Amino acid sequence: MSGQMTMFGSAILALFLAGYLGQQYLPPPKPRVIGLDLGTTFCSVGVFHPGSGDVEVIADEEGRLSIPSCVSFTANAVLVGHEAAELSERNPQNTIYDAKRFIGKIFEPGLLEQESSRYPFKVINNNGSAEFLVSTNQTFTVTPEFIGSRLLLKMKKMAERQLNVPIKKAVISVPAEFDERQRNYTVKAAQLAGLEILRVINEPTAAAMAYGLHKIDVFNVLVVDLGGGTLDISLLNKQGGMFLTRAMAGNNKLGGQDFSQRLLQNTTEEVRQKFGIPPTLTEDIHHLRQAVESAKLNLTFQPSVTIRVPLHLQADRSSGGEGSSATSVLFQTVITRQVFEEINEDLFQKILTPVETVLAEGHLEKGDVDEIVLVGGSTRIPRIRRLISEYFGKEPNTSIDPDLAVVTGVAIQAGIMGGSWPLQVSAIEIPNRHLRKTNHR
Ligand SMILES: *[C@@H]1O[C@H](CO)[C@@H](O)[C@H](O)[C@H]1NC(C)=O
Ligand SMILES: *[C@@H]1O[C@H](CO)[C@@H](O)[C@H](O)[C@H]1NC(C)=O
Ligand SMILES: *[C@@H]1O[C@H](CO)[C@@H](O)[C@H](O)[C@H]1NC(C)=O
Ligand SMILES: *[C@@H]1O[C@H](CO)[C@@H](O)[C@H](O)[C@H]1NC(C)=O
Ligand SMILES: *[C@@H]1O[C@H](CO)[C@@H](O)[C@H](O)[C@H]1NC(C)=O
Ligand SMILES: *[C@@H]1O[C@H](CO)[C@@H](O)[C@H](O)[C@H]1NC(C)=O
Which residues form a coiled coil (predicted)? Predict the structure, then answer.
């Protein structure tokens, strides 16, 4: 009997050892929960690898880490991401972007008509909710959550292709100011894409987590999110491992597009001074805009940039048409970082207004802010980094690509939800139901 027990015991011990040793040599389990950043202009998907402890932002077939938040309808296809963005000029009425600005939102009468005038596609008012009118060889309407679902489905497939496992679960981020309805409709978009959402987290919280601020001893974190068209400032307060959004403010008419526009105006004026005629052809203006946009990006790492743009200036604008004489010229100019900063300085200064608002609303001095996190492509602009570090008297956290900070944090949260994270990390956030964002212009 006792011998049997011993044998039984050794068998268990052997099994235990085999399991233990086996575990050491088995490849780590593949992530099953993905992290999704469904942005207004770009989307990304990431996963947390439990083996290495790294976040991987998943690339598309061409190695790009973000896809444009754009869906284009043609007679025989629904195109998503880069393929859709490429159609935006040829198929503008049926190429929908900015859907996130409409998702789950009820608009006051008249407001949607006003919004619609800003887009090349038709925005329809369906009892206060926005829908988009699509006319290919059929005419139909699609909802913002349907647009969202096509983007999420594309990212789900990118992840499945990369990881080679079916994906059914995800964590998704939303702007801190999204109300319950907007959050619900974002979840609905995911459901339409066949994804179960395990948690919805705020974008600023995700950005803070990307820097591991949920694991270290900090109390007050300020997140500056400056994208193409909007500025969002959030003041987070960490209490017992959880993030609470203490105050939010922003400017929904300030971003990278405005800085480019200033540069375009300055460059257009230079063309007029040089040749005596301003550029008027849509195509010329388009080429100038592209050159200026690329110059703006390069000025982040170069003190000056030379642009060369062939133009077809219309000498006689009044007669128009074929008869008017077009002069082909090569416009060439040097744009310096100094000029770029000068012509935008007043816009850059506007960034500090909502920063001061959140500090006032959070009853904090600027010295009470422990960490500053930068999110959004426009925070790469050296002058903006300097403005923020001078204001606070400390360097912001910038080691993570500001376009990928949110997806990185969402992927970490997905790792936690998937159980592949060391248990001591609790994280997350306290819902902020009654908080309103203050907007400055
Ligand atoms: C619409 O386009 C589809 C796909 O090309 C085609 O099969 C269908 O016949 C078209 N319908 C009409 C009414 O043209
Ligand atoms: C329109 O919306 C209101 C509330 O937003 C709702 O009470 C009403 O039933 C809706 N009407 C229709 C026709 O859907
Ligand atoms: C959001 O969804 C939850 C759960 O389905 C539901 O209880 C709640 O009423 C919804 N809220 C709104 C505003 O739609
Ligand atoms: C462009 O802006 C710079 C800096 O403000 C200014 O010095 C220059 O004159 C402007 N160029 C034109 C053509 O207006
Ligand atoms: C910007 O830099 C890239 C390489 O980093 C270069 O290919 C491109 O021509 C530059 N653009 C301008 C306008 O200088
Ligand atoms: C950025 O965040 C890390 C925490 O991950 C912190 O240790 C570091 O000091 C922060 N600040 C800067 C300027 O990098």
Answer: none
